[in-house]
Amino acid sequence: MTVFHFFNCAILTFGPHAVYYSATPLSEYDTIGTSVKAAIVYLGTTLVKLICLATFLKVPENDSFDPYQELLKALIGFIDVAGLYFALTQLVHRNISQNHKFQAVGLGWAFADSVLHRLAPLWVGARGLEFTWEYIFQGIEANSNLVLNLSLAALGSLMWLRKNKPRTLIPIIYACAGVLATMPSITSYLRRALGWHPPKRPSM
Amino acid sequence: MAGRWKGGGGEVVGSIYSVLALVLILVACVELGDAATAVDVYRLIQYDLSGAPYGSRLAGLNHHAGAAPFAPGADLSRTVVILPVRELNLTFLQEYIISKQPLGGLLLLLPQDIHHKSAGGNKSRNFGLLRSILSELEQLLIHVNLPYPVYFAYEDDKINAVLADVRRGDATGQPATATTGGYKLVVSTPEPRKASSPTITNIQGWLPGLVGDGTTQLPTIAVVASYDTFGAAPALSVGSDSNGSGVVALLEIARLFSRLYSSPKTRGRYNLLFGLTSGGPYNYNGTMKWLRSFDQRLRESIEYAICLNSVGSWNNELWLHVSKPPENVYIKQVYESFSEVAKELGVTVGLKHKKINISNPRVAWEHEQFSRVRVTAVTLSELSVAPELLQSTGGLYDTRHIVDETAIHRSIKLVVESLARHIYGYEGKNIQIFADNSSLAVNPSYVKSWLDLLSRTPRVAPFLSKSDPIISALKKELSDHTDEVHVQHESIDGMFSFYDSTRATLNIYQVASVTFDLLLLVALGSYLILLFSFLVITTRGLDDLINMFRRPPSRKAKAA
C-alpha cells in the first residue's frame, strides 16, 4: 500500500515530463540529446549555485530582513539565468528549430530539477506508513515547476535567440526576467519584513 | 597496450557496478523512522507458572487503532483497543477476557497523575478510586492468558489527540480498517524469549557485637527486607511501598546502628544481621535460599528476626505478624517492646497470629520462611491480612506518592528504638536513644533520597542482572554501614519462568486507505491522459491524436 502511494506520487512528479515529451513534436524530432545536455548544464549550475550560497550567505540568526544578504541571494539567483543562457546559446545542438530547442532545454531543465530535488525525499518519505499530503503537493509543485521552466526557457529564447524582436516587448521581457530572478528575495522580504505568511497547506 | 587498457576498463566497469550495487543496497535499507508519534510503552508481564502460560503472550503489534465503545459482536481481531484506565469499564474488559474474544492488541493508558501527589479532597477520592481500579485491573491481567500483545502507556497530549481522533472516526460509523484509513499502531520487537535461568540476588551485611569476657558466641538479631517487586508491567513496577519502604527503613536502621557500633563504648552485645532479600513475590524464594546458606551455628544464634514489609503508607496502626502463638516468650518480649515504643510514638501495634501450613507451598509473609527453619521471626507491616500470591508486590499504583515519608520515619523510629532498648537492656525505661535533633536522629533526607531512587527503579528480579546498578547501589550502601557484606546469587525455583521484552516503542502512523490510493491513481491517470490529449491537440492538431489510435495497417498503407 505504501509502495502504491510512492508509485502514485512518482507518477505525479515525473509523469508530466514524459507526457510532454511524447505528446509534443519533440519526440518526432528526437530532441532527447538536447534535453540531456540541458540537464547536465542544470547540474553544473546547481552545483555552482550551491557553492556560492554556501560561501557568501550567512545563516540568518534572526528573522529580520537583511538587504545586503538578500541582494547577494538575488545575484546568486541570476546564476540560474546564466546557466539557462549557456544551455540555450552556447551548446552545440543538432539542427533543430528554435521553437523546439527552448522546449527541449526547458524540459531537460525541469526534469533534472525534479530528479535532484524530489526523488530522494519521495523515496525516503512516501514509502513510509505515515500518510501526509506533502508528497502529493510536491508532485503538484513539480508540475508547476515544469510550466515555469518552460516559460523561462521561452523567455530566454526570446531574449537571446530571436533576432527581430518587437521593440515594445523588450522592456517587458527584461522586467519579467528580473522579477523571476528576484522572486525568492521578494517573498523573503514579504515574510520577514512585513510578517506575511504563505497560506498553510491543508492537513488531513 | 590495448589489451591492458581493455582489462583496466573491465576493472573500472566492475568497480562501478559494485559501487552501484552498494548504493542501491544503501538506498533500499534507508530506515523509515518517520512516525508521527513515537510513544514509550511497557508490556504486560509474560510468565509461566509451573508450565501454565499467563500474561501477554505476544509482543509484536501492527494493527489499526480502535476505541471503546464498540458495537456488540464487532470483530476486533485486527484492532488495537485503546482503553484509558481513567474511564475504564472493568466489566467490559472482563467480558472480553473471559469470553476469550480475540483482539488485535490492547493498549491501556495510565493517567499521568499517578505520579503526582494530588491535593484536595475531591482529587484524592478520585485517586482512591483509581488505585482500586488499577489494582483490580492488575490482578485481572496477571492471572489470565492473553494471546495478544498488551501494552501500558502514559497518557500525554500526543496520544490523547490520537485517541480523540480515533473516537471521532468510530463515532461517524465504520470502525477503522484498511479501507477507511485511520491510525495504525506498530510495535516492532522480536518475539519475546524465555529469560534464561533468572537469578535472584540476596545482599547481607553484618554488624558484629562486642565480644565480652568469656563469652564467645553472641546472640544475633536479624533485620530483613525483601527488595524486589512484581507487577503487571515489569518496567513500571517500582514498588515504592511494597517493598521500597521496607528497604529504606532497613538501610536507615543499618546506618543508625553502624554509628552506635563504630565505637567500642556503645557497641552492643548483640550481632546485627541485615538482609536484603530477593524473590519476595515468589513465596520469598530468595529468603529461603539465604537461610539455607547459613551455617548451623549462625542460624542457632539468631534470637529473632524482624522482617519489614510495606511500612510506608499507614496512618495509625501497624501489625506484627507472627506464626508462633503469642504466648511464646520471645514473641511476647518483641511485641511488648514494640508496643511500648509505639505508645510513646502515639501509634498502635497489633499482633496477628497466622499458623503455617507446611504442606501449602504459599508463603505469605517473609517471617514464615524463618519459622520454617525454626528461627523466631516477626513481620512488621501495615497490611492486616496476608496477601495472596503476586498481590501487594509493588504493582502499577504502588508509586512514590502513595508513600508517606513520615510513616516511614515513624516505622524506622519504632523498630530502631525497640531494638536498641532490647540490645542495651533499657526495656521498660523511657529513654530515647534515637531522639529527634540528636546526632542519632533519623535522617529525613537520607530516607527521602533512597525512597526516590527506589521509586524510580523497577526491580522485578528476573529482569535484574547480577550486576544491575540498583543491586550494586544497595550493596555499596550496606557495605558503607556494615562489615562483611556478602552477595549471594541464586536461581529462582522452577515454578516460574519469565519472558523478556518488557518495554518497547510504539509508533503511531496516520495511514491512508487503499481506496484513497486507488482514487488518486485514477485521478492521476486521467490527468495525464488529459494533458497528453491537450498537448497533442495544441501542438499537432486533433487529427494526429485521432491517428494515434488508428490501427497500424493505415501506417503500412501510407508507407506503401
UniProtKB/TrEMBL annotation, chain A:
Task: Tell whether Disulfide bond is among the UniProt keywords.
Answer: no
In terms of Pfam families, this protein maps to: DUF2053
Compartments it resides in:
Cell membrane; Endoplasmic reticulum membrane
| One term under GO cellular component | plasma membrane
**Which positions, given as ranges, span the membrane?**
39-59, 71-92, 168-190
Q: Does the keyword Endoplasmic reticulum apply?
A: yes
- Identify its membrane topology class: Multi-pass membrane protein
What keywords is this UniProt entry annotated with? Cell membrane, Endoplasmic reticulum, Membrane, Transmembrane, Transmembrane helix
Question: Which InterPro entries does the entry link to?
Answer: TMEM147 (IPR019164)
Q: What is its main location?
A: membrane
Protein family (similarity comment): Belongs to the TMEM147 family.
- Name of the protein this chain belongs to: BOS complex subunit TMEM147
From TrEMBL, chain B:
What SUPFAM superfamilies has UniProt attached to this entry?
Zn-dependent exopeptidases
Species of the source: Ensete ventricosum
The residue ranges crossing the membrane are 12-33, 518-542
Q: One Pfam family of this protein, by short name?
A: Nicastrin
Q: Which family does it belong to?
A: Belongs to the nicastrin family.
| Main localization category | endoplasmic reticulum
Gene Ontology BP term (one):
regulation of signal transduction
This protein's membrane topology, according to the annotation, is: Single-pass membrane protein
Q: Subcellular location, in the record's words?
A: Endoplasmic reticulum membrane
Show the GO cellular component annotation of the record. endoplasmic reticulum membrane
Keyword tags:
Endoplasmic reticulum, Glycoprotein, Membrane, Signal, Transmembrane, Transmembrane helix
Give the protein name, as stated in the record.
Nicalin
